[in-house]
Amino acid sequence: MSQSTEPSVTDRDAAEAGEVAREDAHVGTLYARLDALREQTAAQLAEVRRTLATGTHQNRFERDAFATLYEDRLSQLWSVENRLCFGRLDLREGTQDPRRYVGRLGLADERGTQILVDWRAPAAQDFYQATAAAPRDVVRRRHLLTAGRHVTGLDDEVLVAADGERTTGDAALLAAVTAPRTGRMGDIVATIQAEQDRVIRASDRGVLVVQGGPGTGKTAVALHRTAFLLYTHRDRLARSGVLLLGPSPVFLRYVEQVLPALGETGVVTQTLGELYPGVLARGEDSPEAARVKGSLRMVDVLDAAVAARERVPEAPLRFDLDGTRVQLRPEAIASARTRARRTRKPHNVARVTFVREVLNSLVNALARARGVDLGEEREDLVAELREDRDVRREVNLCWMPLTPEKVLAGLYADPARLEAVAPQLSPRDRAALHRADATAWTEADVPLLDELAELLGPLEETATAARAAADREEQIAYARKVLEDFEASGVGNPLVSPELLADRFSGTGPSGTVAERAAADRTWAYGHVVVDEAQELSAMAWRLVERRCPSRSMTLVGDVAQTSNPAGARSWAQALKPVVDDRWRLEELTVNYRTPAKISRVAADVLRSAGIAANPPTPVREGEHDPVAVPLTGLESVVEHVRDRFAALDEGRIAVVAAEEHGPLGSDAVRAAVAAVLPAGAVAASPDDLDATVSVLDVHRAKGLEFDVVVLLEPAAVLRRPRGANDLYVALTRATQELHVLHAEPLPRGMDHL
Ligand SMILES: Nc1ncnc2c1ncn2[C@@H]1O[C@H](COP(=O)(O)OP(=O)(O)OP(=O)(O)O)[C@@H](O)[C@H]1O
Fold it and tell me: Both 291 and 437 in a single domain?
């Protein structure tokens, strides 16, 4: 009889308990080191603050600089409290540092020995990249499961199996993807998968497009890539800033905790509607209007709209200057306009040339009429002309200083004016642009306002602004020198830029951080731009994004099978052609971590039935619950169904997704009806509230979000929307556990077997 050499279950349990205890002790020392660093930094900060009040101007500046370093370091040390260390990497013997602990930041002990590797550092890369097929130098990858500061369990993947060891893994990933949702996105540092890691660590040069179906982690990857780039190119990006462009304010709130949890706070996160400082785009466009406004044809329309504001009158202009009559002929005005346009400067800047030329003509006429010597009297005559109200009015009527808002509102409010500058648009397209409240700005207006701002230029560049800019340059130069001195003495903090320091120095900080200044400045050039749901950007929006990032260092993540904007992308090649031609590279994410296979099969069938060519991603798990179809017999049946789901829910969140916001089965009506029967606070009062258990949303607002249970109302109505198949695909891929479809109409093709 052969004797089994396998260790018994009890032996294995005891061994694992011993390992957990050892890891717990080790993680304890990491936290102890973290605490010590916090104390040390807090003491240094207190000391600097104590001495800040005294000394010379320069002394105070230098100490203020130190305070900034310590404050930033301290907030970083506090941001990593949760799951400080989540993994261990065992490398082949003979490798340098064969045992590496991986966590949210790098730590060294008192002797300077590295005890924790930042997940973004090259030394941590194998933690994410090694696979059983290509183990690199990795023998074992260990995930530490933690609660508070304690290790509660282990998940080992043995990549090069020694005798008797099993090759397991995936438990940490499966635990993460099946966990109940909280309404806020969490980070995935502990379980980033190899294909995601490649994207996160890809070079920042040029345009990287990340195409991936629903749930493939595009948003997660976009956020982790942002943190990675800031870590790797800290010097450059701390100065120029990173812009993360998201599809809606609610989406930005959904993801807002991820970057701070990764120790990054200086990223500008905005929606397209916020990208034109001073305008808040709250209005909604019809699909028709969105399509017209997003089209490249608007470039010529706006150009013509500005040109039409540079007028030559048909008859001569006549002026009476203190009894002297002079006239200005249309030819003279036309010639002034030609000269002004030849400068190729924006309208408001070229106006200076126009006014000078017109005044030249008038001054000649005036000198002739009065019989005075131009050489001697010129200055007085020009001053007289400039002060004359009639002259000022007529010159303004020919070439008015303009704002983008004024020009665009003028086009929307006045069909005749629009027709004059946009003969290439069909009457139907022009009608779609008309609106009663011309300044109820929408998201699709923002790229147009921005385009006009380029065509018009600033209203006036004042001498004070120029002086302020010069002062600031001087302060920044000085701050840079101070930081260099610090670095030379080993106290450098890459989080602090000379600009930030200069702001603190001049008393404008913290409102003057790079992020805040960038967000307020329309002409800011970001060092890197990350766009999530990039498929939704129109051609006009792409022009705006390109202007914000002249270096074209961009990461664009999205899914062309989910496009709902009528002016959005059908393919990446078509969308990017006018922006960067074919100078972009593509990475694809292929695994769906959100939606179980039982549900994603339905979504894939819908897509296929609609003839949309796309490769739906492969679900990482089968799931437990088959999707169900239930008859819908009016609002009451919806309420009843949601009440049942709510009663059955242990943890997590429910979304009710309607085709539209308004109407008898729209999200507004359903929200009110459901809130009336569920306990107070259980139903989100608005689509923007992410914290309640039940959210009622129209399909447009559900984009990018996810919920444990999704109750989808009347899919046939979703399908009727413009790009309805894409919208239905989005709605069907929001659930992490259960999908319930309520319908009165026949189910769309692809769902009919439910
Ligand atoms: N490597 C991972 N480990 C754990 N969870 C992950 C991982 N990758 C993705 N997830 C989870 O999968 C879910 C979907 O991720 P995410 O929202 O980033 O997908 P997406 O591609 O942006 O989806 P969509 O296109 O539908 O908006 C999230 O809950 C995310 O945390």
Answer: yes
